[in-house]
Specification:
The chain is of the alpha/beta class and 274 residues long. 37% of the residues lie in helices and 14% in strands. Helix 6 links the parallel strand 3 and strand 4. It is elongated and about 65 Å long.
């Protein structure tokens, strides 16, 4: 028997108020599902294991749909990534994009789809991750950072020490390389050389591999000045590769900032992806 969900006209779930079958308010305004009939497997799942979502103040009056609770639980069980602290409406917007593609009209139908087609779960995970980044995002902020670094580094003797930077949520690496370039420029201006260790981390293994390669499309010409392109990149056809001295400053690693221990003894934490 074919269990593929029927292809119905797509509704926008953001404008549709989905009422849970049964919810129980908590002292923090969250809700805990007490019963659902969306899928036969749900009856065997202990309700106590469903983590309640934290809801923004303006959403307290509007309970989070039980369907969304179950989607987040499926993601956590299958990928070990917990999105329960994400804003519910932001999560729903990402889910909406998958519903539009799959021509599924309700969250309840999508929950069933996830059960019958678990290969959809990592695809949804990719939709929930944020990868909007580019070199020197908000140039004024980077110029201010450079000025502050120059002031700080000029007052400290850095020859026998390392300058350590942590960039969580580094995505494909543009932010990490931008900070590395600024630090190299600072060393040139101050006529000093010291060890730089930049740790770029992200929960997405695929983007970490791209970051390690240090190769970018010609689109970076929009954000990187011709002088910096000439000094810190090698042109290879229609791509740019970061020079070795810049790549050697950075270590990229897969890390979950919620579950994994943080990098310690750092001089600068920079996270501009959000």
């Amino acid at each position: 028997m074919n269990r593929t969900p029927s292809k119905k006209p797509v509704k926008n779930i953001l404008s549709e108020e989905i009422k849970p079958t049964s919810v129980m308010p908590t002292e923090h305004g969250a809700v805990v599902p007490t019963k659902t009939e969306l899928h036969p497997d749900y009856d065997s799942e202990p309700v106590a294991e469903v983590a309640p979502l934290l809801i923004e103040e303006e959403l307290v009056e509007k309970p989070v749909p039980i369907e969304l609770e179950h989607i987040l639980l499926l993601i956590k069980k299958n990928t070990d990534h917990d999105f329960s602290l994400y804003k519910p409406q932001a999560v729903i917007r990402s889910i909406q994009r998958r519903l539009d593609i799959l021509l599924i009209d309700t969250l309840a139908s999508y929950v069933n789809y996830l059960h019958y087609y678990p290969s959809e779960i990592p695809i949804l995970l990719k939709c929930l991750l944020i990868h909007v980044t580019h070199f020197f995002r908000d140039p004024d902020a980077f110029e201010l950072l450079k000025d502050q670094l120059l002031t700080s580094l000029s007052k400290h003797h850095m020859i026998d020490t390392s300058f350590r930077v942590w960039i969580p949520g580094c995505s494909t690496g543009e932010e990490a390389y931008s900070v590395a370039i600024i630090l190299q420029e600072c060393m040139s201006i101050l006529n000093v050389q010291f060890d730089v260790q930049i740790f770029g981390s992200d929960i997405d293994r695929d983007v970490i591999e791209l970051a390690r390669a240090g190769v970018f499309t010609s689109n970076i010409e929009k954000y990187v000045s011709p002088k910096r392109l000439q000094q810190f990149f090698i042109k290879e056809g229609d791509q740019y590769r970061t020079i070795n001295s810049i790549r050697k400053m950075i270590i990229f690693a897969v890390q979950n900032v919620i579950n994994d221990p943080p990098f310690t003894k750092v001089d600068l934490i920079c996270c501009r992806i959000f």
